[in-house]
């Protein structure tokens, strides 16, 4: 038997891309909020320079009575350039955000005959290069989810739907710095600290992935005000930032409305005075008596100043030796996140340590293109690889060896890369993977891989503690014992910690003496 068969993972069916996507790859896929619709976007992950190909979004309603996987998708939306990223709204099943190769952030409502709802502009204040990833995160002040976008132009921006994507609410720019590597050496990567010297040097690094640490977006435990942000870069850097939604309280500004004042409140203190003066001078020249958000951007302030975060404290995590290709936060642990890279490394990090708890190489010299954490099993996650394989790990069984390796089904090219992976949060046995040929595969997970055991959340916390202490003994019985012997007091403590992601800001990551010297 193959490892796939032994673990009980079976290939359910293959979904073919629409005709418009015949020359495209599946660049991202997700299940919608209800778990009944699988949505994929198509572009080219190997595209560079100008994009001359169209992009396509496709959606399959897998639970419709007349669903037939051999038929074309129920919904197909064309776009003028390749689509590179996708994020389904956490609570609204029909709302989907996509990012284009040209830098647009686009919002669709799949239930409308005219699905386009909003689209951002291409500008110095928005994105000018491919939008590598999108994430929804809850904003306590707005009492709604906001959309974050990271791009290879070096910006991370945050968008509110009530502003119709006409401008970002706030953002930050990534600038060159030196993160820690495995040999205590340094390597070019990125930070969000924009000092004057760095701004004038123009050393901006492209962002490739973003994740918010704390809990799942669906539960609203993950908030822009409380959840630390991790950003991956083209140079391999992993940068930890404080919660991006923390802003200063400003005195009432004459002639500034609430939205304009909110944008100014996110600007760092040293830059805020110059931005305010610039906007007000422009408003006087235009004979404007009222300054709104549109006026702020129309005045063309220095983008480096507007998106500066020079007063924030950043944490550097051990860098990959190639571009970071995926970041995924644990939905069940307030400190854990995964990273994968073009160097073929899969790493499990704790927010409190600069070095990974686990560093694995599922396949030698093979880039890991995607990563996903089970939404129902705290100890299960998976990665998709350029060799076409998908590796499923269960920390309850082993911290080093995958429990299942999903191979391309019969008729698929062995060299066809597995570009993306998505666990279903509602229909827990379903797993979807995308491929370089554009096909989408749906898999059935075994009961064991889909359903959590008693005390598994506490078992994950125990494994993380053990690995943090430097004990990397790969004994499955230890993990199982932790799961079965968790006390009620441990559970209460862990639940309290998970409900307070802000507690991580009161702790500092551990590092070696050499790392402290580098800092």
Give a count of the beta strands, DSSP E runs of length 2 or more.
30
- Unreliable runs: 179-202, 471-508, 511-519
Give the CATH level 1 class of the largest domain.
Mainly Beta
Strand content: 25-35%
Helix content: 10-25%
Mean pLDDT, rounded to whole units?
Answer: 84
Please work out how many helical segments DSSP would assign: 11
Shape call: globular
CATH topology-level fold name of the largest domain: Methylamine Dehydrogenase, Chain H
List the strand order in the largest sheet. 1-30-29-28
Radius of gyration: 23 Å
Task: State the distance separating the first and last CA atoms.
Answer: 51 Å
CATH fourth-tier homologous superfamily of the largest domain:
YVTN repeat-like/Quinoprotein amine dehydrogenase
Q: How many domains? A: 2
Short précis:
The chain has 519 residues and is an alpha+beta fold. The protein folds into 2 domains: 369 residues, YVTN repeat-like/Quinoprotein amine dehydrogenase (Methylamine Dehydrogenase, Chain H, 7 Propeller); 64 residues, Orthogonal Bundle (Helicase, Ruva Protein, domain 3).
Please tell me about this protein's structure.
One of its GO terms (biological process) is intraciliary transport. Residues 467-519 are annotated as: Disordered. Residues 478-488, 496-513 have a biased composition (Low complexity). Its main location: cytoplasm. The protein has 519 residues and is an alpha+beta fold. Residues 179-202, 471-508 and 511-519 have low confidence and may be disordered. β24 and β25 (380-385) form a beta hairpin. The chain is globular. The strands form 8 sheets. A 4-stranded antiparallel sheet has the order 1-30-29-28, with no helix packed on it. The chain is built from 11 helices and 30 strands. The protein folds into 2 domains: 9-177 and 201-243 and 314-470, Methylamine Dehydrogenase, Chain H, CATH 2.130.10; 247-310, Helicase, Ruva Protein, domain 3 (Orthogonal Bundle). α8 crosses α9 (476-484).
């Amino acid at each position: 038997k193959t490892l796939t068969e032994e673990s009980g993972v079976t290939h359910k069916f293959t979904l073919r891309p629409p005709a418009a996507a015949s020359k495209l790859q599946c660049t991202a896929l997700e299940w919608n909020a209800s778990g009944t619709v699988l949505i994929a976007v198509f572009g080219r992950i190997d595209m560079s320079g100008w994009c001359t190909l169209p992009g396509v979004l496709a959606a399959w309603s897998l639970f419709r009575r007349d669903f037939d996987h051999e038929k074309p998708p129920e919904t197909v939306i064309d776009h003028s350039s390749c689509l590179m990223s996708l994020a389904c709204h956490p609570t609204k099943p029909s709302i989907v955000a996509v990012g284009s190769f040209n830098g647009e952030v686009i919002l669709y409502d799949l239930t409308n005959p005219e699905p386009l709802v909003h689209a951002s502009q291409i500008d110095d204040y928005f994105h000018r290069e491919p939008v590598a990833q999108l994430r929804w995160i809850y904003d306590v002040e707005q009492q709604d989810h906001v959309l974050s976008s990271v791009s290879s132009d070096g910006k991370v921006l945050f968008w509110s739907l009530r502003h119709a994507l006409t401008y970002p609410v706030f953002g930050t720019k990534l600038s060159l710095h030196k993160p820690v590597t495995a040999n205590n050496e340094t390597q070019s990567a990125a930070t969000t600290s924009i000092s004057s010297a760095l701004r004038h040097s123009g050393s901006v690094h492209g962002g490739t992935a973003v994740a918010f640490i704390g809990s799942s977006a669906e539960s609203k435990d993950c908030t822009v005000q409380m959840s630390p942000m991790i950003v991956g870069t083209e140079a391999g850097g992993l940068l930890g930032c404080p919660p991006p939604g923390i802003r200063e309280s400003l005195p009432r500004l004459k002639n500034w409305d609430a939205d304009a004042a909110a944008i100014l409140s996110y600007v760092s203190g040293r830059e805020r005075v110059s931005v305010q003066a610039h906007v007000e001078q422009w408003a006087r020249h235009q004979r404007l008596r009222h300054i709104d958000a549109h006026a702020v951007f129309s005045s063309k302030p220095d983008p480096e100043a507007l998106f500066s975060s020079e007063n924030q404290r950043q944490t550097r995590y051990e860098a990959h030796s190639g571009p970071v290709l995926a970041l995924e936060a644990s939905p069940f642990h307030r400190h854990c996140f995964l990273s994968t890279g073009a160097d073929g490394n899969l790493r499990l990090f704790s927010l409190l340590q600069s070095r990974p708890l686990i560093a694995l190489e599922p396949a030698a010299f093979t880039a890991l293109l995607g990563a996903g954490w089970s939404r129902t099993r705290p100890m299960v996650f998976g990665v998709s690889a350029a060799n076409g394989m998908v590796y499923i790990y269960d920390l309850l069984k082993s911290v080093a060896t995958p429990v299942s390796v999903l191979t391309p089904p019969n008729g698929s090219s062995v060299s066809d890369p597995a570009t993306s992976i998505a666990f279903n949060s509602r229909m827990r046995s379903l797993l979807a993977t995308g491929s370089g040929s554009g096909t989408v595969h749906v898999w059935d997970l075994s009961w064991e891989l889909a359903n959590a055991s008693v005390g598994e959340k506490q078992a994950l916390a125990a494994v993380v503690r053990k690995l943090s202490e430097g004990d990397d003994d790969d004994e499955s019985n230890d993990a199982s014992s932790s799961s079965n012997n968790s006390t009620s007091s441990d559970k209460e403590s862990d639940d309290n910690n998970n409900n307070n992601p802000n507690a991580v800001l009161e702790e500092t990551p551990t590092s070696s003496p050499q790392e402290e010297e580098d800092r």
